[in-house]
Known about the structure:
With 138 residues, the chain is mainly α. Helix content is 60%, strand content 3%.
Amino acid sequence: xxxxxxxxxxxxxxxxxxxxxxxxxxxxxxxxxxxxxxxxxxxxxxxxxxxxxxxxxxxxxxxxxxxxxxxxxxxxxxxxxxxxxxxxxxxxxxxxxxxxxxxxxxxxxxxxxxxxxxxxxxxxxxxxxxxxxxxxxx
Length: 138
């Protein structure tokens, strides 16, 4: 019983056992290794990373101020609860984004993760301010 082979290029069925080339298109029947894609190295400037951290820090600070203002409005008028909760949600999301960016900066400066986590979750507001100042002044 003869085995049949298929051409890798055109898919033509080849009935000869020891064929090295396709009868139809002429390409080699040897298994071709796929070319490995060369990965380009991405260059990230530290100044850009620090600018992004500064923008997130400003967003977080404005969310703190807005949450405080809308909390005062909610307490004084007994309304606008949904607006206060929306601003509070924005505060939490901006804080998470800021911590993510600060964690990236801390890993670039080879700071220990344990120290970073304890500082930011032990005293959240003071720790985040301290982390931001410490990581962006280098």
